[in-house]
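sry for the spam today, last one i promise. struct tokens for design, 522 residues
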């Protein structure tokens, strides 16, 4: 395993992703929590120091524990990590006059290039070909004097020590970011560090993870009873399937059906989990309750809050009805767990109150089981396949907890407008799947607009709803861009919706990015 010490870079998580892709388990720990003792306890084979927004030249800026450098562990410093390593080992860092942001050319030293004698760069360039490779830089400061025992491996225009090594002590530093996709050889470089230099085996696979997690769950739960909220989304589905394999009938799943699901989704949850997996499943149809609680409301935040509170009430009631449980299973993922290093402080502004079941375990006096705490989203998908969940469930686009209720903005929800939206949405997704575009899109959905417009259908006048189609690309939902369908495709979808969905006579395509828009309309 490998330890990543986080100095607050925006892309620290990507380092972890690349290391795991190389088949090596790793964790991210914030610099201010890392001590020589905590490193010893974690027992890594190598340590990576991340980048970060601070400047080594400023008093009070973050440092690695000085004792780390005497532990005999291989270390790779990236950007700020390189700078602090150099400074802590007796080198010099100065504010750069050539700031480098974005693409840069890295020039390997003649000797490295000719003899390939640096393990870190093995396989990244063709010996005998051009001694320059593309890398991605983002730094103001730079190393200006190497600590004793180090040599220069590569330079760039803005960084005379763009890659450095102390081969005897297995200490390496790079000024560029090997973890981002804009550094084409970066994945190989990180793989070289964890395999060739740190000597990790590279046998961390999902199969191994599954077996390990099942054993952990059994040890944690014992003979206790576990309850799991199932929504049909990827995370809760994978949790349910994993727990079922671990503890069988000690698990009860509760599916609170809000009535805000898409076409066929509720049926799929029941058929997959109850019929195929044979999981004890309570399917509570609470659609009438949710609709009555939201009657007449249009304010997005009020709607979200009521849906969240109603969900918890219903879940709690159903959990009591099956006799309660000792544990609540949740699909918490690694990005929610990582304690990010914040340099700005202060609470951030609430844009939307997200729907979650926080607070429930305390209220119901249950302990948490969170078997996905160490995984990234796409690792969860791999685990889901490993557990035998259907592909269309595991590869599904994200779907918000409040469901279709937040896709009917500006007018009170009714069974009628939800049904209209459901039909339009199903046609849109059907066409996207048929065109083979589903996996290129982060999320696609229809929104029913609160306006009626005039149309002409046959020889008659129509006066019906307009609907908007949304499709975005994104890697994490934090930023997004609209998906560039070709016009013929959009035209085909619009035509089908207007012809097949009674109640809609106009279709528009939403081309707003995030920011300034959000992905959902409310
Ligand atoms: P926004 O609209 O904030 O959405 O750009 C970002 C991502 O979050 C999803 N989303 C939610 N997911 N509960 C969820 O579990 C919610 O209340 C919720 N609201 C938005 C949204 O679909 C997108 O993927």
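last one done:
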């Amino acid at each position: 395993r490998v330890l990543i010490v986080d100095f607050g870079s925006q892309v620290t998580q990507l380092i972890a992703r690349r290391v795991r892709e190389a088949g090596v388990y790793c964790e991210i720990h914030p610099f201010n929590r890392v001590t020589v003792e905590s490193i010893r306890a974690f027992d890594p084979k190598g340590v990576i120091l991340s980048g970060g927004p601070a400047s080594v030249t400023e008093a009070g800026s973050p440092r690695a524990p000085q004792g780390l450098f005497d532990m005999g562990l291989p270390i790779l410093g990236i950007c700020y990590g390189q700078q602090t390593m150099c400074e802590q080992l007796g080198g010099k860092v100065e504010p750069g006059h050539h700031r480098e942001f974005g693409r840069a050319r890295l020039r390997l030293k003649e000797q490295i290039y000719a003899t390939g004698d640096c393990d870190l760069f093995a396989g990244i360039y063709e010996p005998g070909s051009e001694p320059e490779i593309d890398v991605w830089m983002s730094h103001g400061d730079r190393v200006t004097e190497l600590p004793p025992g180090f040599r220069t491996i590569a330079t760039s225009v803005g960084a005379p020590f763009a890659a450095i090594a102390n081969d005897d002590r297995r200490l390496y530093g790079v000024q560029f970011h090997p973890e981002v996709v804009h550094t084409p050889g970066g994945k190989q470089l990180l793989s070289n560090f964890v395999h060739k230099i740190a000597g990790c085996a590279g046998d961390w696979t999902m199969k191994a993870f599954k077996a390990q997690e099942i054993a952990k769950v059994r040890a944690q739960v014992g003979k206790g009873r576990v309850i799991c909220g199932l929504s049909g989304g990827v995370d809760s589905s994978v949790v349910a399937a994993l727990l079922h394999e671990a503890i069988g009938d000690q698990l009860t799943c509760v599916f609170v059906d809000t009535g805000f699901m898409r076409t066929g989704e509720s049926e799929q949850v029941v058929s997959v989990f109850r019929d195929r997996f044979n999981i004890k499943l309570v399917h509570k149809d609470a659609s009438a309750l949710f609709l009555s609680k939201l009657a007449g409301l249009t304010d997005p935040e009020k709607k979200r809050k009521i849906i969240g509170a109603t969900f918890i009430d219903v879940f709690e009631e159903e959990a009591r009805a099956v006799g309660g449980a000792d544990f609540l299973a949740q699909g918490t993922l690694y990005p929610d767990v990582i304690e990010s290093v914040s340099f700005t402080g202060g609470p951030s502004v609430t844009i939307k109150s997200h729907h979650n079941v926080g607070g429930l375990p305390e209220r119901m006096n249950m302990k948490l089981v969170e078997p996905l705490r160490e995984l990234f989203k796409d690792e969860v998908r791999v685990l889901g396949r490993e557990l035998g969940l259907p592909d269309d469930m595991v590869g599904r686009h994200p779907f918000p907890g409040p469901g279709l209720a937040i896709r009917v903005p500006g007018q009170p929800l009714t069974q009628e407008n939800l049904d209209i939206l459901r039909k339009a949405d199903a046609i849109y997704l059907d066409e996207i799947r048929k065109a083979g575009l589903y996996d290129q899109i982060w999320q696609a959905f229809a929104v029913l607009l609160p306006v009626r417009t005039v149309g002409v259908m046959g020889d008659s006048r129509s006066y019906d709803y307009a609907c908007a189609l949304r499709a975005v690309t994104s890697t994490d939902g934090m930023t997004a861009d609209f998906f560039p369908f070709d016009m013929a495709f959009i035209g085909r979808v619009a035509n089908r919706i207007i012809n097949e969905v009674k109640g809609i006579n106009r279709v528009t395509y939403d081309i707003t990015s995030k920011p300034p828009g959000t992905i959902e309309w409310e």
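The longest strand covers residues 92-108. ok im logging off now
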